[in-house]
Design goal:
By secondary structure, this protein is α/β, with parallel strands linked by helices. It is 31% helix and 20% strand. The structure holds NADP nicotinamide-adenine-dinucleotide phosphate.
């Protein structure tokens, strides 16, 4: 059994990691780290874990972590992982970081949108953990920069088509709608019940920090600098993400070629489901699961392709993909611990 620890276990992404890892056949959760809940039983913080997870939270100590783990998940606000990951890697641990700290190859891009980077020497070694796209690199990696939820929902439909030069990347416009858990568990006015219930709004229009992350990856895939318009929205549901992408196709490209390309690319990818032609994805159909459902439509009047994806922001958008990456790193079945069947209603 592989020994795993979760740092930031009591946050929404961390708790989702605990949920998934508790049902994983090949790992033992050996430590759950929290500042404010150190000493508390995890199941007292999340009663759904009663009888399932019998651990108390530990305070953060790097000696304790390196003694007790083979793999560490860091589910912390950005800036904190880069202060602890170097020591974990030096001790031979594999790390899957859910923050933005190890997602960028270009430290100056990270620094423009986040903080000065204190472990930029590790960025070259870190692998962007979009499991279906970078599995070969993930297999050999010691550090995974797990993608953001918006980038996961947007890059999975786009990358196969960009790689095959079927799209005009500079025409991409995307909007995405996220459930409120995407903002994390800590209290903030914008996620209060009365602020979000029965309401639907855009935020950080064309200035969300996931935009440069997506542009860095799309530019690498397209072989040219790609910039595009991205507008995130907040919807009154606890989890789920629906992304709609509008893009002009290259001359002569039709919907059948788009569908065949995505179908071929994802033929061996158990978590990617292409919707039948008449159906569009629904967040309800992926809730609690690691699936990414993709719908494909063509507006033939404007020659514009419309791609729609649905994921659970906490699973394929965070903890599920993190576990999928661990599975790939350890040479386990990619789906181990991730075979939860979504709710039918
Ligand atoms: N929520 C999502 O849908 C989602 C999706 C993709 C990626 N992510 C990323 O995952 C990470 C965690 O997000 P989240 O939504 O789970 O946030 P969250 O609910 O606010 O949880 C953050 C966790 O970090 C711990 N923490 C906070 N400040 C800390 C500090 N200064 N030192 C040590 N520990 C600290 C918190 O617990 P204690 O205070 O008890 O230690 C908590 O366990 C973020 O980087 C986020 O961008 C989240």
């Amino acid at each position: 059994m592989t020994r795993v620890g979760v740092v930031g276990a009591t946050g929404y992404a961390g708790a989702e990691l605990v949920r998934i890892l508790a049902g994983h056949p090949d790992v033992d959760i050996t430590t759950l780290i929290s500042r404010q809940y150190a000493g508390h039983r995890f199941a007292d913080i999340y009663p759904s874990m009663a009888g399932v997870v019998d651990l108390r939270c530990d305070p953060l100590s790097l000696d304790h972590l390196t003694d007790r783990t083979d793999v560490v998940f860091t589910a912390l606000p950005h800036k904190i992982p880069m202060s602890i990951v170097p020591e974990l890697v030096a001790a031979g641990k594999k790390v899957v970081d859910l923050s933005a700290d190890f997602r960028f190859k270009n430290a100056s891009t990270y620094e423009r949108y986040y903080e000065p980077h204190t472990a930029s020497n590790l960025l070259e070694k870190a692998v962007y953990g979009l499991s279906e796209i970078y599995a070969d690199e993930i297999r050999r990696a010691l550090i995974i920069g797990n993608p953001g939820c918006y980038p996961t929902s947007l890059l999975l439909p786009l990358i196969p088509l960009v790689r095959n030069k079927l799209l005009q990347p500079d025409t991409i416009i995307a909007d995405a709608k996220s459930g409120v858990s995407g903002a994390g568990r800590s209290l903030s006015l914008t996620s209060h019940y009365c602020e979000v219930e029965a309401s639907f709004k855009a935020y950080k229009v064309a200035e969300h920090r996931h935009n440069p992350e997506m542009e860095e990856i799309l530019s690498r895939e397209a072989g040219i600098s790609v910039e595009f318009t991205f507008v995130p929205h907040l919807v009154p549901m606890s989890r789920g993400m629906l992304t709609t992408i509008y893009v002009t196709v290259e001359d002569g490209v039709g919907i059948e070629q788009i569908r065949a390309t995505l179908k071929g690319f994802y033929a061996a990818s158990p978590f990617i489901r292409l919707c039948a032609a008449e159906r569009t994805p629904d967040t309800r159909d992926v809730r609690g699961s690691n699936y990414c459902d993709i719908g494909i439509r063509m507006d033939t009047r404007t020659n514009r392709l419309i791609l729609i994806s649905a994921i659970d922001n906490l699973v394929k958008g965070a903890a599920g993909q993190a576990v999928q990456n661990m599975n790939i790193m350890l040479g386990l079945d990619e789906t181990a611990g991730l075979t939860t069947v979504p709710y039918p209603v």
